[in-house]
Amino acid sequence: MKFEVTILGSSSSTPIFNRNPSAQLLNINEKFILIDCGEATQNQLLHFGLKANRIDHIFISHLHGDHYLGLVGLLSSLHLNGRTKPMDIFGPPELIEIIDLQFKHSQTNLRYPINFNVTNSTVSEKLFESFDVVVESFPLDHRIPCTGFRFTEKQRLRKMIKEKIDELSIPADQVQKIKKGENFTDKKGKIHLSEDLTTEADHPKSYAYCSDTICSWKYLDYIRNSDTLYHEATFLHDMHARAEETFHTTALQAAEVALKANAGKLIIGHFSARYRELEPLLAEAKTLFPNTFLAIEGLTFEI
Fold first, then answer.
1. What's the average model confidence in pLDDT over 180-190?
2. Nearest Cα residue to 8 out of 40, 30, 33
């Protein structure tokens, strides 16, 4: 099963140094989810050869412009390109008012429906569930209401031992039943236990996304044991006073969060415009959490 995230934007506040505001594309078994949609997100999708029309779900963390100002443009382009299938959007309650107002005054009637789902920045909620994934929100501690998101694979069925299929002449229509735990009776009447014909499925992986937040530890339980954690790291730690003032996090603090949450891997992003070079932020984070990576645009990380 494919479970990976591509970085589309990693800058905070404004585009600078060829970095764009926040956006990420999550690929879960060839089903695509957009996480935040800063300015120029649709350009980034084109630049990296990613098809916007394959996105069916969009999650917006909060209403600072660097996290949603690319949304209306993307929705409009999908309309102009002939999209007809629905788009599910999850975000703060005021977001639908923003979308509706812009389309009202441009006299645009979308060819496709938007299913808008309100997020709650005060509690953790299950927002979405499919055959492949469960998406939960959780509160972050930012200057305005803000939510993080956790994407967790659904538990898969046990894996069939391929050699057993040929050895016992197991019909194709029996394979799924065996994976679900049913035993198999061969032509001689011998019963073969499901657990002897299969192996354990892979452990479900999870991706936690912390967009903008002060390092308050309030959200630690919601991201605990995530295989991959994305956490904002706007400043170096010598700017921690500025980070607190603006409700942001330093690279060192992001690493401490990953360490305390027992994350498998840390990706840091949302870099301040004051930093042309990002290696110092990476080096700082690695002093506490060595398995840290920069959210470089165009990079794809396997969860």
1. 86
2. 40
